[in-house]
Amino acid sequence: MHSLFQRFGVGLGSVILICVATWLLGMVLAPNLMMLDFSLRPNLMPAQIGGPDDRYTLVNFTALFSDPVHRGIFLKTIWASALVMATTFVVTYPMAYWLAKVARRKAVAFVTVALIIPFWINEVLRTLAWYILLAFNGPLNVVLTSLGVIDAPVRWFSDIGVLAGMVYAYILFMLFPVYNSISTLDSAQVEAARNLGASTLQIHRRIVIPHAKAGIATGCVFTFMLAAGSYVAPALLGAPGSRWFTEIIYNWFFEGGNWNRGAAYALVLLALCMAFVMAALRIFRVNLADVAK
User: Fold this and answer.
1) Averaged pLDDT for residues 48-58
2) Sequence-distant (≥ 6) Cβ neighbours of residue 14 within 8 angstroms
3) Nearest 5 degrees, angle CA 28-CA 254-CA 236?
4) What range does the domain containing 135 cover?
5) What's the Rg (C-alpha) of the chain?
6) Total-model pTM
7) CATH number of the structural domain spanning residue 82
């Protein structure tokens, strides 16, 4: 705080502090405290609110783990989000390295613009584009059947469709952090390793990836949290057997009318995301300051 006042002065520094405190209290702390209060109360009729039955309880949380269907969807969302994260990293890492260390400046600019332009469109519209692409009579089935890869059109609306849509939707959140980290690596280290006889796999495993661990951790945190909290892609590209935990939360709020149960489920998802962030920072041995860079 003292350094803030030294840099911006007492007046401007105080305004910045007030704005940050207002944002944290009004947009972060207050909504989550309200969600916590809702989650700890039973779902009552308006006339019962404030009565003897209106008391704190854990029934909304225990309901999740006692319901085998919802528990299964919750566990599936965890590993499926991890799969989205891993797939996104596998897809983006070669591209990030190529952009950072191989491509020329004009090629980097062209590819970057080509990647960013589709994201000027709303996520819903981009997901609808995947819906059309993966449709039973869509372009993908037409091409595959014409090439003889498949004998008849395939219904892609399942876990495969959700995975493809999410990887596309969150690819930039993995690509740019990894690219920024790799771009700071001195190319002389790679050349020295190659001159000493290191293979390409050894160079990436022992030099590039350890150097880019902060960017990889950032990308993993972003993609996992976005995938775990996604609603559009599972709702549009998923099948009845590929439901996402966010769909269950949505149903509690807007279809079941049980905001208390929905708040409890949402807080469980929030706790999962926070635990993943802490675990990722520990695994990659980076701190929040490294991720913030």
Assistant:
1) 81
2) 5
3) 95
4) 62-292
5) 24
6) 0.86
7) 1.10.3720.10
